[in-house]
């Protein structure tokens, strides 16, 4: 699983810099998500990485919405679960 996590980060970075077209990006991420459907820890890792990259690259935030759209296709519960975890983590850090 760690090797695939690196592949996901690489795909996200290539997508961010425009090296991947939207179609290739979608196919790449979808294939990884399909392989790990139902494994929430992996999806959580992608979500955390995505949120970090959004903060680092606010001008590209719209591109990351495609990732959340893919999450919804694989499992609609993933977005809600990640949102709750991230909100909970933010509150704990702010305390």
Q: Can you give a write-up of this model?
A:
There is one protein chain. With 95 residues, this protein is mainly α. The protein has one domain. It is built from 5 helices and no strands. It has helices spanning 2-16, 22-35, 40-56, 61-74, 77-94. It is globular, with a radius of gyration of 13 Å. 14% of the residues are buried.
Strand content: under 5%
Please give the number of β-strands.
0
Q: Compute the average pLDDT.
A: 76
- Helix-strand pattern: HHHHH
Largest pleated sheet: none
Q: Structural class per helix/strand content?
A: mainly alpha
Give keywords.
mainly alpha; 82% helix
Task: Set out the fold topology.
Blueprint: H1 2-16, H2 22-35, H3 40-56, H4 61-74, H5 77-94
Helix pairs in contact: 1-2, 1-3, 2-4, 3-4
Question: In summary, what is this structure?
Answer:
The protein is mainly alpha-helical and 95 residues long. The protein has one domain (2-94).
